[in-house]
């Protein structure tokens, strides 16, 4: 775990903590009233930290913090049947509240791995519960964000009757909006750092070869994406969004 990241890391700490940057639609910080955000910064701002790609957030059974993602992206993995091959994987990006189960069950746990350098605000679950009772608008923001997240999850991960190309496209559009970093020189280029084909196949329950075929089509036929080492660049979001509704 590192220290407070600099703007060179792709973050703008001062702007985020000041509440001046827009947050992805549907996220907790998108719904949170502007007047409440300074209370969270006052309580936990000094504890803001970053985790490197591959590191896991401390949301295990013995941990007592929740986290708000301020930059980067994580993948959360669950094994509901107790076997490694039975995997549910979900991506979570900027503005999302993580570890919400600890608000009702302190010993809950979920494997949460950072795909890229991820900047987080750690929040004591016990203190969060106090603030939720004191500020109904904060409670409503959390509930709204969880409902929005559930609906997004249904569209992104559960539409198994759609074609593979449509499902991969929908996921990439979702990640571009919630976890992508825009190129300051060319804002139309959005980089999703740390993303691997294996991560996509885990999340969509598809084989890696099937995912590769879909990505190859998006690269060569549509020229909408470019692949790099542990990252994917959305070169034309408009094309992806059009395919999202037509395929």
Q: Which strand order spans the largest sheet, edge to edge or round the barrel?
A: 1-7-2-5
**Whole-angstrom Rg:** 18 Å
E-strand count: 11
Helix percent band: 25-40%
Shape: globular
Query: Strand count, sense and closure of the main sheet?
Result: 4 strands, antiparallel
- Helices and strands: which structural class? alpha+beta
Low-confidence stretches: 1-9
* Strand-residue proportion: 15-25%
Give the N-to-C terminal Cα separation. Answer: 41 Å
What series of H and E elements makes up the topology?
HHHEEEEEEEHHHEEHHEEH
Mean of residue pLDDT values: 91
Task: Figure out the total of helices.
Answer: 9
Overview of this structure, please?
By secondary structure, the protein is of the alpha+beta class. It contains 9 helices and 11 strands. It has helices spanning 13-17, 28-31, 37-44, 125-134, 136-157, 164-179, 197-204, 208-221, 237-246, and strands at 49-51, 65-71, 74-78, 88-92, 97-98, 111-114, 118-124, 181-182, 190-193, 225-228, 231-234. The chain has a 4-stranded antiparallel β-sheet. It has a 4-stranded antiparallel β-sheet with strand order 8-9-11-10. Strand 10 (225-228) and strand 11 (231-234) form a beta hairpin. Helix 4 packs across helix 5, helix 6 packs across helix 9 (237-246) and helix 7 packs across helix 8 (208-221). The N and C termini lie far apart (41 Å).
């Amino acid at each position: 775990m590192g220290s407070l990241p600099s703007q060179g890391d792709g973050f703008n700490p001062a702007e985020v903590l000041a509440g001046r940057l827009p947050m992805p639609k549907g996220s907790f910080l998108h719904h949170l009233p502007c007047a409440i955000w300074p209370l969270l910064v006052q309580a936990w701002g000094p504890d803001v930290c970053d985790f490197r790609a591959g590191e896991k957030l401390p949301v295990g059974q013995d941990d007592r913090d929740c986290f708000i993602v301020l930059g980067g992206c994580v993948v959360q993995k669950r094994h509901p049947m107790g076997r490694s091959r039975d995997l549910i994987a979900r991506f979570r990006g900027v503005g999302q509240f993580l570890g919400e189960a600890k608000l009702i069950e302190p010993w809950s746990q979920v494997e949460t791995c950072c795909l890229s350098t991820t900047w987080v605000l750690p929040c004591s679950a016990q203190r969060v519960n106090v603030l939720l009772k004191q500020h109904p608008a904060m409670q409503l923001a959390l509930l709204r964000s969880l409902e929005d997240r559930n609906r997004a999850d249904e569209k992104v991960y559960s539409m198994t009757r759609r074609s593979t190309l449509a499902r991969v496209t929908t996921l990439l559009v979702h990640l571009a909006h919630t976890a992508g970093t825009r190129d300051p020189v060319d804002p139309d280029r959005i980089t999703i750092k740390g993303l691997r084909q294996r991560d996509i196949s885990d999340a969509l329950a598809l084989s890696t070869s099937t995912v590769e075929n879909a990505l190859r089509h998006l690269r060569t036929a549509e020229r909408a994406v470019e692949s790099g080492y542990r990252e994917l660049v959305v070169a034309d979001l408009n094309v992806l969004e059009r395919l999202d509704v037509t395929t």
